[in-house]
Amino acid sequence: MTGRIYRGGCLCGRVRYEIKGAIEDIICCHCSECRKAQGSAYATNGNVKAEDFVVLTGESELTGYPSGSDQVKFFCRRCGSPIISKRRSVTDRVRVRLGSIDGDITQRPTAHIFVGSRANWDPLDAALPRFETHEPSRQQPPNRAAGRPGND
Ligand SMILES: [Zn+2]
Ligand SMILES: [Zn+2]
Questions:
Q1: What pLDDT is attached to residue 148?
Q2: Ligand 2 centroid, distance to 6 Cα (angstroms)
Q3: Looking at the CA of 15, which ligand is closest?
Q4: What spacing in Å lies between the alpha carbon of 70 and ligand 2's midpoint?
Q5: Domain range 6-144, CATH architecture
Q6: Is the pLDDT at 50 greater than 70, yes or no?
Q7: Exposure of 16 by Cβ count < 10 A (0-12 exposed, 13-18 middle, 19+ buried)?
Q8: Where are the extended beta strands (E) located within 13-119?
Q9: Fewer CB atoms inside 10 Å of the end CB: C or N, the chain?
Q10: Which ligand lies nearest to the CA atom of residue 112 in the structure?
């Protein structure tokens, strides 16, 4: 716990949320699914304890897109902003799309993953470690088998 409270929301402002704890395991994923989901060079997502993530307004606007058998990506149905994803196999965490957070956070990304499938116009951040697929700590679970999209 950091003791800090972060707030965030979607582009149109209907969905608003609060994060009451730490943001952990921040990863930049360059896989093709994350690029499509974000409409950008890569997704930067971080884990938050499920009980620390509270939707303040607009919960009825949050729409789930089943991405693979285990994950649902939630976005605002009005403006399309990606907000979080949840895994059926991981009930105690949500994965927050960091671009939806207002203002500054104290934590930092720890790696770029799936750089092997990055867009050819993506310059990358030269300072961070790079992995062809998942970062080493995440290469074991069956739903993150090597060679499959990161699905972050
Ligand atoms: Zn919205
Ligand atoms: Zn990914």
A1: 53
A2: 24
A3: 1
A4: 14
A5: Beta Complex (2.170)
A6: yes
A7: middle
A8: 16-19, 24-29, 43-49, 53-57, 62-67, 71-76, 82-87, 90-97, 111-113
A9: N
A10: 2
Residue 104, pLDDT above cutoff 60: yes
Q: pLDDT at residue 124 above 50?
A: yes
Print burial letters for 96-135: b (CB count within 10 Å at least 16), e (below 16): bbbebbeeebeeebbbbbbbebbeeeeeeeeeeebbebbb
Q: Give the chain's radius of gyration (CA, Å).
A: 15
* Residues 100, 11 contacting (CB under 8 angstroms): no
Tokens in use for 22? Answer: 């730490």
Ligand nearest to the CA of 82: 1
Please give the distance, rounded to the nearest whole angstrom, from the Cα atom of residue 27 to the centre of ligand 1.
24
Q: What is the DSSP string of 90-125?
A: EEEEEEEEGGGB-S--S----EEE-GGG--TT----
For ligand 1, the distance from its centroid to the CA atom of residue 63, given in whole angstroms, is: 11
Mean pLDDT in residue range 11-38: 96
pLDDT at 54: 98
- Write out pLDDT tens, residues 64-74: 999 989 999 99
Centre of ligand 2 to C-alpha 32, Å, is: 7
Q: How far is the CA of 138 from the centre of ligand 1 (A)?
A: 32
SS3 52: helix
